[in-house]
Design goal:
single chain; alpha/beta; Rossmann fold; six-stranded mixed β-sheet; about 30% helix; globular; binds 1-deoxynojirimycin
Amino acid sequence: MHKIFVLFFLTFAFSVSAQKRTNSQKVDSVLKLMTLEEKVGQLNQYNDNNLATGPVTIDNDKIGQIKSGQVGSLLNVLGSERTRSWQNVAMQSRLKIPLLFGQDVVHGYKTTFPIPLAEAASWDLDAIQLAARVAAVEASASGIHWTFAPMVDIARDPRWGRVMEGAGEDTYLGSLIAGARVKGFQGAHFGDTNAVMACVKHFAAYGAAVGARDYNSVDMSDRQLWEIYLPPFKAALDAGAASFMNSFNDINGVPATGNSYLQRTILKGKWGFKGFVVSDWGSINELVNHGFAKNDYEAAFSAITAGSDMDMESRSYKNNLEQLVKDKKVPVALIDDAVRRILLKKFELGLFDNPYKFSNVEREKLALNNASHTAAARSMAAKSIVLLKNENNLLPLSKQLKTIAFIGPLVKPLKQNKGFWDIEIPGVDSNFIVSQWEGLQNKVGATTNLLFAQGCEIEGDSKAGFAEAINIALQADVVILSIGERRDMSGEAKSKANITIPGVQEDLLKALLATGKPVVVLVNAGRPLVFNYTADNAPAILYTWWLGSEAGNAIADVLFGDYNPAAKLPMTFPVSVGQIPIYYNHFNTGRPAVSDTNHIYNSSYIDLSIHPKFPFGFGLSYTSFEYSDLKLSKHQFTKKETLEVSVTITNTGKYAGEEVVQLYLRDKVGSLVLPVKSLKDFKKVFLNVGESKKIKFLINNEKLSFYNAKLVWDSEPGDFDIMIGASSADIRLKDSFELIK
Ligand code: NOJ
């Protein structure tokens, strides 16, 4: 195309008068100017050279390719100077189409928040939204436009390493969290300078990989897909999510990346999604490994046909799409649709007006040094800690204790607290973390003597450090033991067949308990672990997950009662891997188990309990709550009506605190069998000592509906049980009602 002609069109496309036109008209004007090679370029995403979050392909000519319009997006570009310098390169291309910078900002950018599974334990949607907001403020100041989060995969198998990245096992809780995180990332208005575009992943059913091996196959009924796995994606979309990422797994034999039913029929069809879908890292070319495509050419064909718009790191689109068009296998309209979706987001983000809008050294300095971000991280971390056990009210500890022995391999390390998917920004202090040791030091006064011994390593069988640990324990009033996983033991490609506490850490606990001193155990992990010795023998246990930059302070806040723990488990904790998959909302079966000892022709194990160690929704407080006065506004109603439910919660203990009041329903008879209970609502309430509050819930047709055999979402008339409780297994009040025609 003639240079002057192009210039004229570009000036028109981006000019002031052009701003009156809609973004979609602007996209059309740009699209008209593009060669096929440039169009394909917009669908091509590369990794920056410095950091890799997948198997890297060496490419020595990224600069040249960007200059010639062959790249639309980069991932893993960190820091405002670097995003700016790559954008400079794109501005040397013929059409000056800005690059999109994507990054896994999963639980914070500089300020690291708890891992998402831990945040989910807070059941605090405002706090979760705020955590995503802070991450967006920081990342956007570095020039990042797009986070590959939230991960909304439902996960019922703690062996899967990526459970740390999601909201756990429950569809209802997971859907609300998905929406809160999207809103937090994307901010008040799409395109705000302090916001990033969300990317909901992994579409779909990635969390149900067979045997919990990462990237493995998924085989599931349509009903389960729609009922359990898809709703969090829909909730994220309803919250405005601008992009989706597909997944590595095949589902019922069709890899998600080449899955037209998922991407075209459901997402872009039935749900009307107007944003774009990015593949997962290399997942287009992996269609060859799956045995779904003969070669890279066929893989590109399958993926674009199925609705994958952007190719992350496969180079399959770059290497094949032009040829596929020339061979008349792929209509150019299909390419145009994908390009249009991507350009639209670039326009909506305001990048055509100012490609450097987000990269700003000054703003970055301020955003990465903001005390309110640190405060939010500390509060989120405290809200994420689950009190699993507290015999004889050992916790909270007194600040007047004379000597505390803080023992274990996780007391002093800094980075272990960050968990998987942390970010290290070049030139920025990556030790911006409060260790557990420092947190305790910050908390206690000058009269308390703190002793430390590592005791053992996280892994390995050496007990050489036990003697020193026992020695300091004997001098202390109380022992705090910090044990668990290393931060790279849960995460992508970190599936485990054995999910017990590694090494000799539980032996160390045994040795410390033998001293007769009271021992408080902190369990650090990215997943539900199996830790029966600890659970049965330690008098007090806090599940501290991976809590991020403020871990040490938050743990100390909870240990000494400056924050009264209120978190509840978002996943069921098994007694043994033999129980997995184990989840609270199972069906009753025709022969339900009656007890752990009676195995006469019923659905149980002859050698293992069917009950979990800790159930979904479980978590203690330093205070106690009484549930009373369950009232239903009626006991019969039609699907057009709404039922009002009220219950009174009273703080009967000695500390002010919050309780997560959980509402479960059971549809007793259906055209399909239905779970023994399903979470349908919850409220987190704060109560002073002795205070009572009346909590109200509304039950409408939506809460009574399910996907029937025709995959229609609707309710069926009949009897329902309503259960209100402090966990899925601790139902305090019960009633029933009838839905009539
Ligand atoms: C692969 C992971 O599955 C995905 O979640 C992540 O966003 C990409 N790598 C990019 O790092």
